[in-house]
Amino acid sequence: MNTVNFLKGKDFLKLLDFTPEEIASLIALAADLKAKKKQGIAHEYCKGKNIALIFEKTSTRTRCSFEVAARDLGMGVTYLDPQGSQIGKKESIADTARVLSSIYDGIEYRGYGQEIVETLAKYSSVPVWNGLTNEFHPTQILADFLTVQEQFGALKGIKFVYMGDARYNMGNSLMVGCAKMGLHFVACAPEKYFPDEKLVEECKALAAQSGGSVTLETDPEKAVAGAQVIYTDVWVSMGEPEAVWAERIADLTPYRVTKSLMQKAAENAVFMHCLPAFHDLNTTVGKQMGEKFGLTEMEVTDEVFESEQSIVFKEAENRMHTIKAVMAATL
User: Fold this and answer.
1) Is 319 a catalytic residue?
2) Which terminus has fewer CB within 10 Å in the chain: N or C?
3) 140 included as an active-site residue
4) Is residue 212 within 8 Å of 178, Cβ to Cβ?
């Protein structure tokens, strides 16, 4: 297998499309590229190429990761913000894909339905990468797994607990990734926040092959017993109406990650979060929600977020290294 562009020409839309061996190779490539970056070793494997970044949903980590990774690989970058593209408004997704792929060597999409990035890929003649959709967030999971591997030396056999609303991109993607790579995944939430039943069954079948497992649990203390990784995300996703906040806060407050909950996990347990996090009131939205609902923190306490068990910023850095691996491998 070519150590760099071993997925040449392939899209990166969801982890379900890749074998455990391919996922492991992407993580290994990311680790190698990270080491080169730290040592100041140039790695312009894609010199002279250009990519387009379509962001219908804005982002700090995803945008910065793609832009820095692309430049490290020697590429030029065009960023198209929500107002900078006609995709789906004045120009169809299929037409956008055909136009951009005649100009660029790769296209990233971050936005709404998975069907949009799938359609882009169908009509594009160059690789398309999913920077986040409502259903899946595959580049985040690669970063998470590189971080877990760095922390524990391996992925297989790790008990990985996702606390909170597990119905959308993070719950789905972590469940798929864990099932593929032999981790023991637990989604801990009220039943109405469990992942899609069909996807759960598909992941259970994948886990049976990898030596992992998939469990749905409503009891937080039972869920975290013996767990090495406790993971959570914001309770309300970008673009959702404010009306859902009250319901989510009422339903999910018992699933907040606290110090006492972390103490019930394994002795070497770590806390992870894909960010941004509502762990204090030092953001505009956090302040507004704090004033409205009388909360100082939501999905995780500030005590846990700022603790030695928290590896969220190592995880955030690894977004860049794993995104770089995806682009290098597919270009």
Assistant:
1) yes
2) N
3) yes
4) yes
